[in-house]
Amino acid sequence: MRLTQTKAELRAAAAIRPRAVVMTMGALHDGHAALLAEARERVGPDGSVLLTIFVNPLQFGPTEDFDRYPRTLASDLAIAKNEGVDLVFNPSRDELYPNEPSITVHPGPLADELEGVFRPGHFSGVLTVVSKLLHLTAPDLALFGEKDYQQLTLIREMVCDLDMDVDIVPVPTVREADGLALSSRNRYLSETERDEALVLYRALSAGAKAGMNGPDAVLAAAHAELEAVPSVKIDYLALRAPDLGPVIGPGEARMLIAARVGLTRLIDNISITLR
What we know:
It is found in: Cytoplasm. Beta-alanine binds at residue 59. (R)-pantoate binds at residues 59, 151. The protein is an alpha/beta fold and 275 residues long. 36% of the residues lie in helices and 21% in strands. It folds into two domains: 2-171, Rossmann fold (3-Layer(aba) Sandwich), CATH 3.40.50.620; 186-274, Pantoate--beta-alanine Ligase, Chain: A,domain 2, CATH 3.30.1300. The strands form two sheets. A six-stranded parallel β-sheet has the order 1-4-3-2-5-6, sandwiched between helices. Helix 2 links the parallel strand 2 (19-24) and strand 3. Helix 6 (122-137) crosses helix 7 and helix 8 runs antiparallel to helix 9 (215-227).
């Protein structure tokens, strides 16, 4: 496994094809390991798996946890090596943004909904860094977790609208045995807060079970679970079509939730079949 930290080093690295990239902000956990394992499976033993580790300042708001965000490069590299990563790109802020960017990616109207209401500008920062990293790594495949479902949807739209020559591969959310979605921010939770956070998955699961009775029943079942844990403050609970447009008739849908557990903000989502 080779570690690179500059764009020049990255360009000089052997360009083995097919090539898959997994983009992260570090603090790797089993969810990231699943992305890397899927990347290795898809490119095969003769392909190349790239991991990027970069805490992107453009996607953090002024009151968010950029400085507090965990940076665990040594353990990240150990996980990467264990999962068969060939190349790690870990640039500094000055390397990726030598100048304050004056041109960024405009993510469109979906970025102003759901997460965008609570994190204005977030998705512009996400799409800008993803665009840069796709350009620099030139992969055939880029893998993203479904836990950040709105992010995944917007990346798909960007790649389609801008004719980027890469396949976006979604990977299902990885969960703890009790259902809590794996997240780098879970480490901020106290023992009590972690127990409280389980209500997010209980609410999503209750909604999914009510899918046979239609959208109103789905939302009612989820809200009933959430009301039992008032200490968890809900930012939104939404039922959308798979492309995050409005639900129209029966079929597949996606329920998304964001909530604050203590000082930690968590998101999750689940696929639902509406009858």
